[in-house]
């Protein structure tokens, strides 16, 4: 391995174990910089060529009281020498920066797992704060684990003594010490982190140097002390060839919107109100004004979508991003967009609900809200990404549907996709779809009157013309009142309303979406698992494990929730039993049952956390056994 | 964070909106839709005033957009042969903000009422005013809910007996002009539906103002709140009550300018006095362009709910960069500094290659 950490010490001989995959969890106080540490380790793993997936987990409070259980922040990453699907169920390695982090995470560490503890924080006071009566480092309760006790704060302060930094500032760098140590243990490249730290603290070179020193100190600690006898190697994964980067779901989604604006040759207006966990989409898009993207931070959720719809009326690509509570506020405007038949993108990064619920946790419980959460018959297409990288493609797909069919589109991401990350094969821009819409430019009345009829539909798509203000001769008025088919004047005619309601529905039902692809390697499975959104990885991983044990199981994952792919009915009917795992109380299952009359069985969880592959593996195994018994 | 001075030139409200040499009349602005307000409704007079003042602006009709919320007055866009959107209750300023921000070539008008703008849409009104988006907001104030058949509104007088308040309403009313001035509005005016001349003057000034212009129009609802503003129309009373503001002129009114507005030493505000008693020099001179809105606010506090007196005309008209101009300038600045390169964006700086 050609990696150095700037140390002149000759490399100590250690036992090198080769592993195919490792799950590491960094846990500490929310002020300890665990997210940054995890992010950096992720980048190192990515740069090394491992496949990876991450799961950040942080408290809703910005600064929960220090050292307490609610203040614990963690970052889990899974990296491997093959393509993996989830951030991992349980850590192989737990780094606990304080007693609270230990207490709240130790339950997930399997016996025999590696535990690295920052002993400096294990003071009487800190132990009492989280209800430890005896010091777990001394009372033998950690005996089932491989424990490494490291005085990280002390060692970091020692390493930074010469820098003249205050003790407090020096101690802050202890997360980089931890990163250095782990980087040494797993033979990670280090140049990227040093470069990153220099850039991040560009304006404070002394802080940058301190962090780099701490990082090297951690590395050297592993190298020189005898306490670590073994290091580990995880070889690069064999991924499809191409250039990769690491990407989070929120970033990918934002890039998808930028790309869609470019491919549609339209200016983009993002009207948004800050809300967890969607705000990073706004932050990212605000950086890309040079692509003709205007971000409007509105006074509330309603104004955000209102401005987006106003921009769409004017011929721009209107986008609003939010989470479930925001969708509730936006519903009336979504209805107006349904009625005025204007393109609009509504991004819902789902979180635990109802009400304020669990703002930083993940859930899939807004599906029925997206589907039905409006007054009247107000059908809206729904798409959902199945992984962080897929958020890019799904954004383009949402824009395609919105522009082609002149309709609001609901894009359902969720907390785990938003903050999770994975390697992303960077697409070649030239291969992205052409999304350029056509605007109405002349009168269209079929009666030769020379009038413009704003509600005359395209026979193929049933879309109405998009005639933007400024186009001579096409002046027209739209709005929330029911409109006469064709001419588009206000109409209270009962037959017209009946026809318009059915037309709007038919337009959405007729949207062309790709067929669902079934993953059924042996092609003879009798049981089908159907999922949607972020559960793709966990379901896929569980299916692999079940198959590895000689059982047969098929997996279909939906990215289009409305309309469903046309082949879905026949896919469902070609299996004996259908199981639908969801992070809600069975919302997709309800839709499938009502639409296809299939006896879909629900498996549900609403804990604010993603499924674990292990958990689904046992659910699937039991289900398969039950199916056999029938 | 420091503010960036974008060095924008001073623009008029209609700069950037394409004009036409074609002669236009009110008829050109009349759509083929039958107007459906109740007979005698004040909305008719406002519609007629708008239709007949627009031709004088010489704009291309297709570059004018009317956006409304919900309520009687919000049917307005259907009657104009321009682009229009009859949106949802209270939200017109938000929708218009998105449109105006992306389309500098449009003259964007919002038509709203006292319920639409001040109850359900209060938040959007307030923020549009503070942002100073290039929008013209016509607030038809009839002090009642008409479309829902006669409940009291946020501008109804306390104690109003309506279907929803059989023992009298309890809440204290808004003064829309005071509210707008408090919300950092750059242009605030008030006019009467029945005074075509002044209404036209005010509309024109609003159109030419770059930024959010709020025009409160006292509008009679003969069905549910008939005669709310009658005292301002009765000969004799009219002269005694209406204080018409004219920029640069002393604030005098009444027969032969008998009365004037003077500073009130006791309250620090303003009061009405007989000019003969206080002397001409004591009468304040109206400066609509004054940066400090204090005097405009004090003028808005004269009378108000009891209409005794009633100040009309342009209270305030000051120049401040508009949100939409600034937003476009940022985009332009970003594009000029570094035109978007999508492939480079997607690549980012931290990549690795997997060989085939
Ligand atoms: S109810 Fe009143 S405001 Fe509404 S249209 Fe009739 S008269 Fe005009």
UniProtKB/TrEMBL annotation, chain A:
CDD domains: TPP_PYR_PFOR_IOR-alpha_like. The gene is korA. It comes from the Bacteria. NCBIfam families: OAFO_sf (TIGR03710). Residues 31-218 form the Pyruvate/ketoisovalerate oxidoreductase catalytic domain. It comes from Gandjariella thermophila. One of its GO terms (biological process) is response to oxidative stress. This is 2-oxoglutarate ferredoxin oxidoreductase subunit alpha. One of its GO terms (molecular function) is magnesium ion binding. InterPro entries: 2-oxoacid/accept_OxRdtase_asu (IPR022367), PFOR_II (IPR033412), Pyruvate:ferred/Flavod_OxRd (IPR050722), Pyrv/ketoisovalerate_OxRed_cat (IPR019752), Pyrv_Fd/Flavodoxin_OxRdtase_N (IPR002880), Pyrv_flavodox_OxRed_cen (IPR002869), THDP-binding (IPR029061), Transketo_C/PFOR_II (IPR009014). Residues 525-590 form the Pyruvate:ferredoxin oxidoreductase core domain. Keywords: Oxidoreductase. Transmembrane segments: none annotated. Signal peptide: none annotated. Residues 269-485 form the Pyruvate flavodoxin/ferredoxin oxidoreductase pyrimidine binding domain. Pfam families: PFOR_II, POR, POR_N.
Automatic annotation (TrEMBL), chain B:
GO terms for molecular function: magnesium ion binding; oxidoreductase activity, acting on the aldehyde or oxo group of donors, iron-sulfur protein as acceptor; thiamine pyrophosphate binding. One of its GO terms (biological process) is cellular respiration. Gene3D superfamilies: 3.40.50.970. It holds the Pfam family TPP_enzyme_C. InterPro entries: 2-oxoacid:Fd_oxidoreductase, THDP-binding, TPP_enzyme_TPP-bd. CDD domains: TPP_OGFOR. It comes from the Bacteria. Residues 1-28 are annotated as: Disordered. Keywords: Oxidoreductase. Residues 70-217 form the Thiamine pyrophosphate enzyme TPP-binding domain. Residues 1-19 have a biased composition (Low complexity). This is 2-oxoglutarate ferredoxin oxidoreductase subunit beta. It comes from Gandjariella thermophila. The lineage of its organism: Bacteria, Bacillati, Actinomycetota, Actinomycetes, Pseudonocardiales. The gene is korB.
